[in-house]
Specification:
Blueprint (H helix, E strand, L loop, with lengths): L47 H11 L3 H7 L5 H14 L5 H6 L6 H13 L6 H10 L3 H14 L2 H9 L7 H13 L5 H9 L6 H13 L10 H9 L8 H11 L5 H10 L3 H10 L1 H4 L4 H9 L5 H13 L5 H13 L4 H13 L3 H10 L5 H13 L6 H10 L5 H18 L5 H13 L3 H10 L10 H10 L7 H14 L4 H10 L3 H14 L21 H7 L4 E6 L2 E7 L5 H12 L6 E7 L3 E4 L28 E4 L11 E4 L12 E7 L1 H6 L5 E8 L5
Antiparallel strand pairs: 1-2, 1-8, 2-7, 3-4, 3-8, 4-6, 5-6, 5-7
């Protein structure tokens, strides 16, 4: 995910009166679905002792949290265990294992969650033993999730075969999926998964389909392909399992599936299923040209997500039949009214000798507005696929464009063209373009240019010295993403000064930069060296303001007014208090107003909140901590974008559908309670016209 987090701006007036608290009307809020929040309320906003544990979590003090696991009050023990799930300190694992036998199920559930976040596979046996004796369904679900994230091979059989309380099969299916994503599977797990593809419980069916779609080694379930096809062909209107089944079939790369996927692409009632079919078909196109025809036909789909996904699939193809290319060229010429789809198709034209058409499209493209900038950047990106002189000249000129989005796209395209050719005769022209992008010290262009400068052909031009010079002019955490790229590039330049440069970073500074330098040294030196300092200091973050949060309340609403309608989001202050503090204050200060959704990935997320730059590269002065909650990433979950642990800020994303691979990796702090149809309709460049916060007591 290309994201940067943003920092907290101080409020200029006490209580922020008049800055967005008032609500002329309270939006209608849908009731929370079962398991939407994952963790029951514990009265955090009324209890100073629980708030002290959150303070310890924010300051990354695991010793205080471990000590609290022995407290007489179960609410304190549970909050301490929950906090350790975000701190993720390996030294806490033994203590967490000890409270898996706590008499209170709240404590056991939070301990299981924290162990799942630990990445410690040595806990497998203890987790299996706890699962065997557990009767509380919530705790069972957390134990299954923890095993899915950390369990070793033998524990998988227990997950598949163990008698569990009624209602545990959805969590069992997801646990099996998590094992499979890590490459851990066996015949019993595959048989269980395939047998439940047609389960009556939609959650079980969806989890089983997800397991096949995300399994690291799809060939292991290939013998069951016919059962997967039967499940896919079974008519169930808007079945949420169907997109995952389409993804699974695409991974088989069997031409026999072209007809069924093409049919789904044409006529499935769910746009998410049509997007999944469009993503699955390209893998079959080399063997079945009918796949390309189906994708070309999908360009006329009235849903822009579907049409754009089809366009992206066609544009990424290594080769297309000549009639299809002719059809695409005609479509682009006739559909300037759908610039997002048309601009996505341009790489296919550039790759087939029609770079002139791309340049003409670029010359005629509008320049004003965030949506226009998105379309223009897509057209610039398309020139990467061309191999003619005029398009190279245009890319070099565009790499210095005033619009950083166009400049970033040009540098990315130049990187691709350089990687393809590496022609020494043109090395100086490419180097000068990359060097200018780096010196610009724009977060996007510097991040794009740094990896290109690692090429050995640029060493004699002074690439190493340039990388170190620009790095010295940057600051963390604001510039952390380009700084990481410079560190990686500097480690590859090999000009004799890179080791001292990397060791200096690895011994001091921001933890993300320290880790990057450590990794670069391991790559640079044959056996690697130990440069991990003891007791590293976590990066600076904002302090908790409990009076402010008490005024916000445990379930405040964040309301986005967009040109397509209203999105109402319910935030969970108790699970993610620092995040809610930051997001609520940002909205109240009107900083989210008129800010675009800069990133939209069909059937994945819409992302916005970058009021610094509007393109996703806006950086923070102070980071938030990652608050890894028990909320699952289902349809309409709202999470925080990041560039690594503890780098969150104010950029948020909202999911189109279930995305379980994000669970426990990105802060989930809220859910859409009204307006998911609006979320599903949002396109890149569309803006939040107004954001406001409604306190819990005002609803």
């Amino acid at each position: 995910m290309r994201v940067l987090a943003l920092g907290l701006l101080a409020c200029a007036c006490a209580g922020c009166a008049g800055l967005g608290w008032t609500a002329p009307r309270a939006p209608r809020v849908a009731p929370a679905p079962a398991g939407a929040y994952g963790r029951p309320a514990d009265g955090l906003l009324d209890r100073a002792d629980l708030q002290a544990l959150v303070d310890a979590q924010v300051m990354r003090r695991p010793e205080a949290l471990v000590a609290a696991l022995g407290h007489a009050d179960a609410a304190v023990r549970a909050r301490a265990a929950f906090a350790l799930g975000s701190v993720q300190d390996a030294s806490a694992v033994p203590a967490l294992l000890g409270v898996l036998a706590d008499p209170d199920p709240r404590v056991r559930a939070d301990a299981a969650f924290a162990l799942g976040q630990s990445a410690d596979s040595t806990s497998s046996l203890a987790l299996v033993n706890a699962l065997d004796r557990e009767t509380d369904l919530t705790v069972v679900n957390e134990l299954l999730d923890a095993l899915g994230k950390t369990g070793v091979g033998p524990s998988l059989l227990a997950v598949v075969t163990m008698q569990l309380p009624a209602g545990a099969d959805p969590a069992r299916a997801m646990a099996i999926a998590r094992y499979g994503m890590r490459g851990v599977t066996d015949g019993s797990a595959i048989s269980w998964t395939v047998a439940h593809l047609r389960a009556g419980d939609v959650r079980v069916r969806e989890g089983a389909a997800y397991a096949l779609a995300r399994a690291r080694f799809p060939d292991r379930w290939r013998p069951h392909a016919d059962a997967v096809r039967q499940a896919f062909d079974q008519p169930r209107p808007r079945d949420p399992a169907r997109p995952f089944l389409a993804n699974a079939l695409g991974r088989l790369r069997d031409p026999a599936d072209v007809a069924r996927l093409s049919s789904a692409l044409r006529s499935d009632a769910s746009w998410r299923a049509r997007v999944a079919a469009a993503r699955a078909l390209p893998a079959l196109g080399a063997q079945a040209p009918a796949a390309w025809d189906a994708l070309a036909g999908a360009l006329d789909d009235t849903n822009d997500h579907v049409a754009r996904t089809a366009a992206d699939a066609l544009a990424a193809a290594d080769s297309l039949p000549a009639p299809v290319v002719t059809r695409l060229a005609a479509w682009v010429g006739a559909h300037r009214d759908r610039p997002l789809v048309a601009s996505s198709l341009l790489p296919a034209l550039a790759r087939t000798g029609r770079a002139g058409a791309v340049l003409a499209w670029l010359d005629a493209a509008p320049r004003d507005g965030d949506a226009a900038a998105t379309h223009r950047a897509l057209a610039v990106t398309a020139l990467r696929a061309a191999d003619d002189g005029p398009s190279l000249d245009r890319l070099i000129a565009l790499s210095r464009d005033a619009d950083p989005r166009a400049a970033f796209a040009a540098i990315e395209a130049l990187r691709g063209r350089w990687a393809d050719s590496r022609d020494p005769q043109h090395a100086r022209r490419f180097y000068d373009a990359f060097a200018a992008g780096l010196r610009r010290r724009d977060l996007a262009t510097t991040t794009a240019a740094a990896p290109a400068l690692a090429d050995s052909l640029f060493r004699d031009f002074g690439a190493g010295a340039l990388l170190r010079e620009v790095y010295a002019q940057m600051e963390a955490p604001r510039d952390i993403e380009p700084m990481v790229e410079i560190i990686r590039a500097a480690g590859q330049v090999r000009d004799g000064q890179e080791v001292d440069f990397l060791v200096a970073i690895a011994m001091t500074g921001h933890p993300v930069l320290r880790q990057s330098a450590d990794d670069a040294l391991d790559d640079r030196l044959h056996e690697g060296i130990d440069v991990n300092a003891t007791n590293p200091v976590p990066p600076t973050t904002i302090l908790m303001e409990w009076d402010y949060l008490e005024d916000v309340g445990p379930r405040p609403l964040l309301v986005f007014d967009t040109e397509r309608g209203e999105i109402v989001i319910e935030m969970d202050t108790e699970q993610a208090p620092q995040t809610v503090l930051k997001v609520a204050r940002t909205a109240i200060l009107r900083l989210y107003d008129d800010v675009p959704f800069h990133r939209v990935v069909p059937d994945f997320v819409v992302q916005g909140g970058d009021f610094f730059r509007r393109d996703g590269y806006g950086g923070p002065d102070v980071n938030l901590r990652s608050e890894l909650t028990r909320m699952r990433y289902t349809t309409g979950t709202v999470g925080m974008a990041s560039a690594g642990k503890d780098t969150e800020g104010v950029q948020y994303f909202i999911t189109h559908g279930p995305t379980p691979h994000l669970d426990g990796r990105y802060t989930a702090f809220a859910r859409v309670v009204s307006g998911q149809d609006v979320v599903d309709a949002i396109q890149p460049g569309e803006v939040v016209r107004r954001a406001r916060v409604i306190r819990t007591r005002d609803r």
